[in-house]
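hey can u run this one w/ adenosine-5'-diphosphate bound, need the structure tokens asap thx
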Amino acid sequence: GKGVAVFTSGGDSQGMNAAVRAVVRMGLYVGARVFFIKEGYQGMVDGGDHIVEATWSSVSGIIHKGGTVIGSARCKDFRDREGRMKAAKNLIKRGITNLVVIGGDGSLTGANLFKQDWPALLQLLLKKGEITEEEKAKNTHLNIVGMVGSIDNDFCGTDMTIGTDSALHRIIEAVDAIASTAYSHQRCFILEVMGRHCGYLSLSGSIATEADFMFIPEYPPEHDWPAKMCEKLESVICDQLGFDTRITVLGHVQRGGSPSAFDRLLGCRMGAEAVLALMEATSDTEPCVISLDGNQAVRVPLMACVLKTQAVARAMQDRNWEQAVQMRGRS
Ligand code: ADP
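ok here u go:
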């Protein structure tokens, strides 16, 4: 059967384990040999016992766990050709020419580059005597499928990324807990959530917890926001503004804990679809990302989505809010 390897890279998120599990089991079901690569690209470069063959039972009892059981890492070596050559050799020696990458736009960019570089890497490895002519002939094409694991929901081309829903659950639990003490003490609480350039967690969290005021990067505060906020608060509570104010920064709590049912199902569906995409891939199939589109797991072009995501991030940094929001709309 085909050799398929799955790895998680960059920041972790809840639901990655469900995706890994689905890739392993769907892969075995369709007759592939499936491998884990531990610690992302670093494990691919280092090889050895970082690359292990998976069995049906090796992914039992992981779906309810947060984070990623196969580890994630950032890897400097993979950015250089030298590192990618080591990675390519480690894959070829195990007959792996199909990769499932679960990560953010950086990890997906790396995978795309790897595919583009693959013919040159094979040539170099052959010249150096690291692989044989026969190994080169057997491994001419590298197939890539990506899935986006991120709690920020900041990737263009999918309705939801793996982990976002669980993070939202963490947020509303925290706000509900804080709200009960806030009401008892006439205190005002300000909560900072994650999301980087994307206000999804703030917006959805605010609606779900009936926040009085919300700040999102796509709609930055105007200079008179304190007046507007007081006006808004006044309509709720007449004798406001003597309020004691506390700030809570939720931080990595949002990325931790058990994945929600939605993220487990999302990981399962995307993982299964990723394997099908690899099985159907031919020599001229471009890398794709499995995305959620109207509750369907579909394949979208990887690099087009990555470039759009990066363009949105740049627009946000340049304070071109309207352009960013427009670009981010469904592709
Ligand atoms: P994320 O995937 O969450 O966006 P990073 O941007 O840190 O996280 O990328 C994760 C890893 O992917 C990097 O540590 C590196 O090994 C690899 N990577 C990212 N960008 C590139 C690139 N342009 N070329 C090669 N590898 C890359």
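Residues 105-127 form the longest helix (23 residues). anyway lmk if its weird
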